[in-house]
Amino acid sequence: MAPPFGLLIATQRSGTGALGSVLDQKNHPQFYYLGEIFHPGGIGDRHNYFTHLLDYIREDPRNALAEAAPRNFERFLATLSEEGRTLLPDVKYNSLHSLNQHWHSPIGRPWLLEYARAEGAPIIHLTRRNFLEVFVSGLLATANKVWHATDAAAVQIRSAVVDVPRLLRFIDDKQRELEMIEQWLKGHRPLVTLDYGDMFDAEGLLAREHADAIARAFGTDPITKRKPSFVKQAPRSLTESIKNYREVEQALSNTPHAWMIAGNRLRQAPPTSTTSKGSAMKKIIFQNSAVTVNGHGITMHSITAPWGEDDNLLGAMRQGSFDEKKTLAYWLFLVENAPKNAMVLDVGAYTGLYSLLTVRARRDLLSLAFEPSSVTFGRLVYNIQLNAFNPRIVPCHLAAWKREEILTLPHRYGFFSLCSGESIAQKGAPDHTETVKAVPLDHILQPTRPDFLNAPQLEGISKRPIAAVKIDVEGVEPEVLEGARTIISTSRPAFICEFLNQQAEARLGDFFASVGYAVIPIPEERNLLAIPRDSHDRFVSDFATWAKRHGTAVAIAGHVIENSRFETEL
Questions:
Q1: Which whole number is the average pLDDT over 163-182?
Q2: Which of residues 538 and 1 earns the better pLDDT score?
Q3: Which residues have a Cβ under 8 Å from the Cβ of 57 and sit 6 or more positions away?
Q4: Digit-coded pLDDT (tens) for 273-326
Q5: Which positions ≥6 away from 1 have C-beta within 8 Å?
Q6: How many degrees, rounded to 5, is the angle at CA 278 between CA 277 and CA 283?
Q7: How many domains, in total, are found in the chain?
Q8: Which of 261, 276, 302 is the last residue of a domain?
Q9: What is the CATH number of the domain that holds 427?
């Protein structure tokens, strides 16, 4: 499910208009690009924050105070929110202060970025590290009085004289500004950073790798319409757009900024490391993270490529933006209070968080982890091995379903991508598909199990009570429940189920009511808890007692393990 909002952060003249036109709702139904919301010249536009702020101040003059800014901004977002679409405001570096509180430090992370981090909102950081190009682009836009051109004919003035001393001050200021912004954004997840220099491919389309990175970060369908609406104002070569090119070239030579004069012949700043030929070298990073949830420590692996960290849940846990803390609290309560030698079913296990925590908290429990995606299943198995939980977690490369059959699982991204949010019911064009074996959960209770459920660890599972079942299968939870009716009638386990919208929540509520379960909504999260109706009152009382010691939301801490980080060339 797409998040309610994200941010596009950049400096002026860095291509936000072009990128925004690709992410406009006309091109992608899951995005709602708002444009530059803090532009003082946009007052009157319904997408401009100050248009709404004036109304709020008319309601109550105290809304003009800095302390009211958070409430004002949330009202602004709510006014524009549309079901299923992610609001994408364009915020320039020099507008990030617009919502700061009283006594905010001038070098502190702006309130807006703190809010985005707390909400787990994705951020696109669009840079333009060639500050000479930024400077020239600003000169030409000012001369033409055209800031976003959709027709090259609208741009009459194609070259300008550069004030060299002013340029040098501009470059130094921009370098310090960028370093500050990068420090503020450090650790934010999900974060996509791309540079204007390589944002578009040779055909003028948003580069596929950047389009995929954005779609991953926002949890949307792939971005297939990648042609921007705007055209570049400056000529392709700086020799054409700078009238005193030789003077500028001489001023920048023998300085750290000399590379900028090459313009589009060198589309990005010199990399921190290079190959023997001096070309840019991208890295892929393998690392292990230590995560502690309510004192239960586990280790999980992730891979970070130029388009981001592949296990986005792990990244969120490390950075403090994980959004299922209350659900995890309920799960740990169920695990810690399960009968001796019980088992749990982790359906849609992804990389194994719930299973890993289960057997860390209780050595006598067994977890069956169902994960249909072959790439994600491999990571699940690796995480089991990292923690030496091999005998206690049974990874099942299967899809749980209402009947036994072969299904097609669409993958939104490439072969090597872990993709949370993938669903058998996914709509839209996939990157590729995979056939998966689907089975009802009731099959695990059969005296003679089929060959795809015959792991040695499953010997004697008929003697293990099923204490809890977690189902996170992106919209097909009712179909999975249909295949678990025998488990429901004989074992009466607790269920934690995800729902993607109110309609899905209602379907789950109807199902559980029909089998004698009471539903407990989990506040502010997209999960619900279902308990046998005759156990409801005792469960509520016992959880309240447990929560006095442990809290109604888990405490999570995480860090990359020292010396586990390995880099290689991509």
A1: 90
A2: 538
A3: 63, 64
A4: 333 333 444 678 999 999 999 999 999 999 988 767 889 889 889 878 788 999
A5: 219, 421, 500, 501, 526
A6: 105
A7: 2
A8: 261
A9: 3.40.50.150
Which of 223, 239, 261 marks a domain boundary? 261
pLDDT of res. 189: 83
Tokens 């001796």 appear where? 340
For residue 444, is it within any domain?
yes
Strand partners, 296: 293
Instruction: Name the helix (H) or strand (E) containing 71.
Output: helix 69-80
Q: What is the pLDDT of residues 116-126, one digit of tens each?
A: 988 889 999 99
Residue 413 resides in a domain: yes
CB atoms near residue 569 (< 10 Å):
9
* SS3 category, 288: strand
Taking residue 544's Cβ as centre, other Cβ atoms within 10 Å add up to 10
Instruction: Give the chain's mean pLDDT.
Output: 87
Angle, helix 131-144 to helix 164-185, in steps of 10 degrees: 110
- Beta pairing, strands 86-92 & 31-36: parallel
Query: Where in 416-565 does DSSP place strands (E)?
Result: 432-439, 466-471, 494-498, 517-521, 527-532, 556-560
Return the CATH number at 11.
3.40.50
- Domain with 383, as residue range(s), is 323-553
Greater confidence (159 vs 438) lies with 438
Whether residue 289 lies inside any domain: the answer is no
- Rounded Cα distance between 115 and 96, Å, is 12
